[in-house]
Each structure stands twice: as structure tokens, then as C-alpha cells.
Amino acid sequence: MEDGPTSEVSAEPAGVVLEKAEITPSRHPGHRRPYVRVFCGVIVALAVLALSLGLGLGLGLKHNSQNTVTTNSSFLLDPSFEATSTPTTRYYEWVVGEATGSPDGYKRTMLVVNNQFPGPLIEVNSGDELIVNVFNGLPNGTTIHWHGQFQNGTNFMDGTNGITQCTIPPGSNFTYQFTINANQYGTYWWHAHASTQYTDGIYGPFIIHSPNEPIYGTYDREVVIILSDWYHQTSSGLLAQYLSSTGIDGSNVGGENSGAEPPPDSGLINGKSTGSALDLDPNLRYRIRLINAGTLTEFVFSVDSHPLSVVEADGTSLEPVAVHRVPIHVAQRYSVILETNQSSGSYNVRAEMQTVCYKLSNPALDNMVLATLTYGADPTTPKTQDWSDAYPQDCVDLNSTMLVPAITMDPPNNTQSVLVSVSFQQTVESGGTKTLAYLNNTSWQADYANPTLFQLYQMGEQTSFDSAQLVVLNEDIAVIDVVVNNYDDSSHPFHLHGHVFWILGEGDGSYQPGISALSLINPPRRDTLTIPGFGWVSFRFVADNPGLWAFHCHIGWHMVAGLLMQFASLPSRVQEFAIPSYAWQQCTMQNGSPVVS
Q1: Percent of the residues in the chain that have a pLDDT greater than 90, as a whole number
Q2: Interacting residues of 326 by C-beta distance below 8 A, sequence separation 6+
Q3: What's the burial of 157, exposed, middle or buried (CB within 10 Å: 0-12/13-18/19+)?
Q4: What sign does the dihedral 212-218-220-222 (CA atoms) show?
Q5: Which H or E run includes 229?
Q6: Which of 60, 66, 299, 503 counts the highest number of beta carbons within 10 A?
């Protein structure tokens, strides 16, 4: 670390191709750009009706799970999509609801958008304006988070329950409207950010094109592959058990196996445990955009007989590096180039679930999830073999030396340092039996009716947050070094909202100032990193984006158990935000109870 005091922050209260779009003149006053309206049949009609009744009023529709899920098992991007620097406005209508589906053959109630799983593809260009009108047809509140989007000036559209907005009440709608950063491109995703709802199916891909992306034009076609774990029980039931005094299997008692998460029942590739198929053309270079939309599981991705060239990590273009396998933890994204230059036929696509990272096992789980990739022939059941070299099961990311940004950017000198510890602790309130997750001495709890952003908007730098909120506040622009020491035996994928950070170093044990090795020469940049079990990481970011930004473990069970803190940047700028009136109104409609699926 350099150039700044080190202090520990205390816990004081302080797919499928979408239907062809139609270009029509904008009906939104003040906009001079055209917008793209994506039609989704009857669902759109319902959502438009909701909008016509006024934001926050809703339709009062009855909820049911008699709808059947449509599986988006092959996200082949439309090659006719024009990547351009000329911005437009793209408009989507979504209905979040319950539906019956069986991604792995086991029928259950799912939570989905427009009856699709995974959810609808969002495809935009850098600089576009995005408008997504979301109608909540669930019996509980929900929000949608746009993972990895900078949201500069529109922090209130980040979609984080209890931080940047209250949940969208049942029977109401919320219009998310923001501009894609002109310098942002790559592979992203969207998902529910209320309790563990996305575990039940509310997620989908978010792709940003740009002719300025360093790897643009180096491939012929694009494919999105979403990896995820899957449970036969709804996440709300599992969460209640996970947070109980005994835990999932009773081993929480006495701290024997504190924080042990429910192991999944299966793994999915593009919404299916078996049967997902990619029909490609021979002798082309395909950009495969990988997204881990799971709740707990790190995957190792590979394609038999086909080397992969890693060219992007979390929206940052990389110097190409050849690998046989790509480890990808929860919420991370990679792009890899695959050439269809082998013998015509069908090949196994493999997503191996790293069950060694689980604290509890599921004997019924098949940890090798398979899909089929075919070119130059009719699809058949592949007889191809896995790569012979084994990948170490260490639950961490690709070696940082392999993630060299294509655009060189050294981090500026830091002005502030923050020390954070990760732990699971038996709580005093439960008599020493219930386990919660802590960053330093704080176990986060969402304030469902009074988001921390709204508090900051009203009180500025004088805001006094309650004891369940660990907040680092900066009135001026700062360059912050964050050191995280992990006192848990499991690895944790942490995501920082609204920013990309430089990864300065990582290692085993605890960080030792002046001893632990750090790199300041074009270090890896991304928005989601893995903190190794009983290890440390150090990263640096520029806190110049006004708002309240969550930094949290993306293992869904861990976030709800308390592994979340916030960075409050430029409160005087926050007080200039134009937060929509319907966002405030929906906070008055909360009943104060936790969100459940």
C-alpha cells in the first residue's frame, strides 16, 4: 500500500434472438433519439396497461404459477445487430411473475421475467439510453439490478433493495431508465437484487457492443452461455433454514460448520441440465460470452478438443491467453474465442461444478453439466473426450498474471485505505447458536422502507446510518485501497457496484503491510473478484461516482446473511439527484417485512 493512512472501518452506526425490433419515433418528451421497442405479445400489452395507469399504481393482477416457462437454451446473438457509436434509445416491457418449469426435469414454481428462463436478452451499444418498464406480478416485492453498469448520475436506478430503492410492490411497476456509459462495453447480466430471488430464475444476459472495444472485429459470430446452479426447493424456504439456529443440516450448532450453505441439486447451461445445444457454422471464430449466474457454485468451463482464448473479463478486454479450461465464479463473466476448425461433428461443452468449494455435499448431484456444440454435421450425442490435463480444484480465479488488460492503465496513487475482515459468527441475540455473516463487526440488514441512498439524499454527509449498515463515506473524490482479510475457510466472490477496480494482490493468510506483494503495473481490472479461503486480496478504485455503492459477496446466501458493506461517494452530488417521485412513493407502500420469494 502507499500514500495513505490505513484504518479499519468500524461498525459504529455511522438465449434466443429477440424478435426483430421496430424503430419508431420517440414518444418521450425531450428525447430526440429514436428508440427501439421490443414487443413481447400479450405480456407487453399488460405492461403497457400498467404504465398507462401510472407508475407505482399497478394492475392488481392475481398471481399464479400456472404459466409454463419457455427455456432460452441457445443464445446465438443476431449477427445483423449493428455495433455503432451513434446512440439510440432501447425500450423493453417486462413482467416478473411465477411460472412452472423443470430446468433439470424436476417440476417446481419458478420466478421469471416474461415467462422466459433465462430471462430476456438485453443488447445495446455504448452510449445508448435503456428504458425497461418492470411490472411486478409476484406476491412479494422485487427489484432488478444491472450488474456491472456504472450508473454515473443515476445511482437510484442501480436496483439494489434497501440501498438504492425500495422493492417494487406487488401489482406495481418501476421504470428503470439510464444511459450506458460511452466507454463501457463487454459482457454483463441483470438479476433480481431482493433477498435470494434471482436463485429462483430472475436473471438474464446484458450485452454491450462498441466499435471501440479492443477485441471488436476479431471474431465472426457471438454466443452467450449462462452457467448456473439450481435447487428443487424455492430459495425462500432454503434461506429460512440456512438462517435458522441449526442451519441446513444441523451443523451450525456450536459453530461446528458455521455458515454451511445449501448445496444445489443440479447445474444448468442456458437453463437446462441436459439438452442445451449450440448449432454453429464451421471455420469461424466465435466469441463465447460466459456468465456465471449461479448462487453458490464456481464452474470450470471447457469444450472438448477446442482450445479457448480468453479475451475479456468483466467488461475489460484482455491480451489473448490460450487455455483449455476457464474457472468462473459467481457473477463473473469472461469472453473466450473458439474456432470451429476441428472435424465436423458434435462436441461436449462442459461446465464442471466445483463441489470441493461446498461445505456440505449432495450425493445426488452430478457435478459435470453437459451441452452439445455441433458444426458441419447433424447433431449427435458427442463421444468426445475431456482434456487430459486436470484443473486444480482451488476455488479461485484465473491466475492474475493471465488477465492482462489490452488497454494499459496503471492505478493512480491511493489517498485512503480501508481494512475489511470477513467472518461468520454465532450471534449473541440467538444465545450463541445462530450464525450470521460479518464484515468487520457489522452484519448487514436491508432497510426495506428507507434505503440508504434516500437517507444520504436527505441528510448528506451528516447522515447517521444504523448499526446494520457499514458505510465508508467520502465527501470528495478519493482513491481507495481496500484490503479484505478472509477469516472463513471458503472463497467468496465479491462484487463492487458502479465501479471497475484494479486487483493489486492476493495471497494466503492475512495481508501484511510492506510485506505482501502488490503489483501497480497494469494490474487486472474487473468488477467481481474471488477472495480465497483464509486468504486476502487488495484492490484499488477511484471513488468518483456519486451514490451509495454496495460491495458484497455474490453467493446469495452469504449476502442475505450479512456480507455487504457500502461506499458513499460525493454526498453533495447525491443531493442533486432527480430521484423519480414513484421511487419515493413505493417506499411508502412497504410493510417493513423482509422480502421472500
Answers
A1: 80
A2: 290, 300, 301, 302, 308, 310, 334, 336, 398
A3: buried
A4: negative
A5: strand 221-230
A6: 299
Rounded CA-CA distance 197/142 in Å is 8
DSSP three-state, residue 156: helix
Residue that the C-alpha cell 444476459 belongs to: 205
Amino acid at 572: S
How far apart, in whole angstroms, are the C-alpha atoms of residue 204 and residue 271? 10
Q: Is residue 109 within 8 Å of 98, Cβ to Cβ?
A: yes
Interval 244-266 mean pLDDT: 79
Query: What secondary structure letter does DSSP report for 396?
Result: -
C-alpha atoms less than 13 angstroms from C-alpha of 114 in its C-beta half-sphere: 25
**Residue 254: pLDDT band with limits 50, 70, 90:** low
> Cis omega before residue 118 (within 30°)?
yes
Per DSSP, helices labelled H in 389-438 are: none
| Calpha distance 316→335 (Å, rounded) | 10
What do you get for the CA distance between the two ends of the chain, in Å? 43
Residues 6+ apart with CB under 8 A from 116: 69, 70, 71, 72, 204
The span from the CA of 534 to the CA of 555, in Å, is 17
Q: Which secondary-structure segment (H or E) carries 471?
A: strand 471-474
> Average pLDDT for residues 89-109, to the nearest whole number?
97
CA distance linking residue 558 with residue 316, whole number of Å: 27
With contact defined as beta carbons under 8 Å apart, do 224 and 205 qualify? yes
pTM over 0.85, yes/no:
yes
